[in-house]
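ok so for the tutorial part 2 we go from a plain amino acid sequence to predicted structure tokens. step 1 is just haveing the sequence, like this:
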Amino acid sequence: MYRKNAWLKYKDNKDVMNFAEGYKNFISVAKSERLAVKEAEKLLKANGFKNVDDVKSLKEGDRVYFINKKKNVAAFIIGKEPLENGLRILGAHIDSPRLDLKENPVYESKGFALGDTHYYGGIKKYQWTTIPLSLVGVICKKDGSIVEVNIGEDPKDPIVGITDLLIHLSADQMSKTLSKAIEGENLDITLGSMPLDEESKEPVKANVLKLLKEKYGIEEEDFVSAEIEIVPAGPSRDYGLDRSMIAGYGHDDRSCAYTSLMALLDTKKVQNTACCILVDKEEIGSVGATGAQSLFFENAIAKLAALSNSKNPLWSARVAMENSKMLSSDVSAGYDPLYGYVSDTKNVAYLGEGLVFNKYTGRGGKGGSNDAMPEYYAFVRKAMDDAKVNWQSAELGKVDQGGGGTIAYILGNYNMNVIDAGIPVLNMHAPMEIVSKVDVYEAYLGYKAFLKA
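step 2 — the prediction. this is what the tokens look like for a chain of 453 residues:
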């Protein structure tokens, strides 16, 4: 089971490095689900895909996409085979752990204006203090207008952040466990410290609200119908003296989302209809209208069937999904030599060794996992080897150490064959995650090979 380091297969690294630059640009901009969808739609349109609402019928070779509530994308290349013979599906999620402003967020305390937050997804709370943070999202007003907010991403912008105790006064804090040292209710961002005037009851808060009204035309009550995410500020960067890795926010799972999308864009003719679907809410259970458990994807395939002249589109969609093959494009935990005790070194993903297949994830006794069929795993192995893609197999830590989930089991509920396939990540769920550029490129090659298999 020895796996050759993927860097060694390239005489020069030009293709790997060029692909990494495109990914770095994407992940630097797409820091929320809405921004990821917006960037994905730009790429789709630039590569000849049409919004399905502008299409009257479908034939082999057509390239169409769906947008769901500005947080999902499903893009398709219509294949030679009938839809009922199954699709080749790449599915990734575009949400990442972060902080969200609460509905009534702005308050004043002892000369500071602060923003109250609620964290989203699994985070180590202490990692989010004393780092530069940005505000990105939307504010939806009662008149139906939508105001886009982006503060902290432009180098000329101010940033926000979460303070922490100085070491000299941290005796009590340092005696607590890591999970308790920073409380969730204390992950509040500092918004300002300048008073508006002497007359205001809360002058610093009043000044912040005045600035927001001048810039965005909003009132304090508008935060009730807002979606403002607090994310690490600044672009992704090369990591390591050899520039072999990328440091950035949201590799989980936008590294797999970008490579899946690019694999579809760079694919021409296909035998079976090819699909890339990007979903929301994976980090909190894939729930809601934009999560993988939504009927959006099933409805999208039913509409494809209707546009392909199916007499019973919903039934055709069910048959198509049952006959489909899918890669759940999601990241895996990369081996960290500083914390090797959490991994089974024979069954762990290593940075630099290519695309990772996880037959199962879940926790403990495979709880919540998909546990892919061995016949299907063999099919995927052949597709990778035929295309000379570097790949490896892994589990997410030792059996009793932990584990995690993906969207694989949800699509498996449609009786389709699914296996997790993604990119190994260090610092997963941290504000700064790490991936290898060559793994990103091998994932792209592997996803392309799968779409044609």
